Amino acid sequence: MNSTKIRQALLIINPKARQDVGVQLDEGIAQLEQAGIAIERLLSNTPEDSRRAVLERKDHLDLVIVGGGDGTISSMAGTLHECGLLLAILPLGTANDLARSLGLCNGLEEAFDAIVSGERQWIDLGMVNDNYFFNVAHLGLGVKVTEELTDDVKKQWGVFSYLKAFFAAIARIKQFKVTITADGVPHRQRSIQIAIGNGRYYGGGNVIDEKKRINDGKLSLYSLRPQTVWDLLTLAPLLRDGRQRYNARVFNLQAESINVSTGRKVMAIHADGEPVTNTPAHFRVLPKALEILAPKPISMVE
Known about the structure:
Blueprint: E1 8-13, H1 22-34, E2 38-43, H2 47-57, E3 63-68, H3 70-74, H4 77-83, E4 87-91, H5 97-101, H6 108-117, E5 120-128, E6 131-133, E7 136-140, H7 141-148, H8 151-157, H9 161-170, E8 176-182, E9 185-191, E10 193-197, E11 201-202, E12 206-207, E13 219-224, H10 229-241, E14 250-255, E15 257-261, E16 268-271, E17 274-278, E18 281-293
Parallel strand pairs: 1-2, 1-3, 3-4
Antiparallel strand pairs: 5-6, 5-18, 7-10, 7-16, 8-9, 8-15, 10-13, 11-12, 13-14, 15-18, 16-17
Helix pairs in contact: 1-6, 7-9, 8-9
């Protein structure tokens, strides 16, 4: 356990997050208060409100706890990094991919236990142009999946909502020309999907690369070459487990710095499920950028 005592914490909750955990939240907050941590609660409707609250209190905080989905948590990455504040998360979203990357796979009870235990780890952050992200950034098919993943789909399909969105997105996807320059080396190709990961998980438990960890100082990229729907379906199990390197229809690399250019065709880029920027784009990793409370060494997360 880290010897630095946590005394004052700001708990930011997205009011649109899961509504069935009120009792667990109250019990968890009581657990933190019994451990000597004073909790200020904030229901925040916008990232701007959350960032403003942190900036106003930064000199008096030992910890920021963010409760919500990956998009809510990701929206705070830059502010927490710039303020040098410790982060803990309460996974209250549909996918909770950052929680998976941190080994928080058993819900709120485990998340509150991690805060009380005080086990700290340093993780990397990804950047695309001027935007921070924890998990994965996409262009192509991944963006179409996000667009199909409406609130109604999430409510109706739950944990299967990403699968539903994937099949709907396949019908809309078109190939594009791209130049990928990784640590100074260019690769020119056609693609239907590019994913660049800082974290291990994305899209509701898919693995960006079987060897990826959120503290390894690298970005992992894969690009899907144009292929039929049937080819995509047969490739799906490898994509799910992060073993796409074993298929010739997928281009893979790891690098600290990656530039992606789609020529005259400007393409949208989404990171952690939210639209953030467009091509051309510069991706880079910020090693050990943020200190976070997590239950076990990230090198053991699978």
